[in-house]
Amino acid sequence: AGDVKAGRTKAAQCQACHGLDxxxxxxxxxxxxxxxxxxxxxxLNDFRSGARQNEMMTxxxxxxxxxxxxxxxxxxxxxxxx
Amino acid sequence: AGDVKAGRTKAAQCQACHGLDxxxxxxxxxxxxxxxxxxxxxxLNDFRSGARQNEMMTxxxxxxxxxxxxxxxxxxxxxxxx
Lengths: 82, 82
Fold this sequence. Notes:
- The structure is a homodimer.
- Chain A is mostly helical.
- Helices cover about 55% and strands about 0% of the residues of chain A.
- The first copy, chain A, has a single domain (about 5-80), classed as Cytochrome Bc1 Complex, Chain D, domain 2.
- Chain A has helices at about 5-10, 15-20, 35-50, 55-60, 65-80.
- The interface between A and B is medium-sized, with 20 and 20 residues.
């Protein structure tokens, strides 16, 4: 499982759309707070690999390592209960 | 915007994985409660069109009309705050 603190640091680059608290800042961006960790890992892996396509997320995911993805998923999952 | 009551009825087919309350029943299924409506509509449209691939969701989305999608998005969005 990922590291929540490292995920929080990495999440600086996600907050414009998803919020540092995991609550969406724009209608097309999903809330992430409390999301299941496995789903978040799959989503980021799929954006990075191209299996899932989205202009913004494809770009953002390209720079993520496996550890970054695990940490981000742990962080957003940790944010309260949905 | 969709009809919440019609969405609740239609959501009977979603609840085994996503819960009738929008809280995931299995780790690979995301929570949907309170999710942004626009994101939910896009997700279902993308599964239906094949732009987004997932064995289960591709199958489930195939049978949905535009109205079903709008109603389901309205219903899951209406479920409390995440």
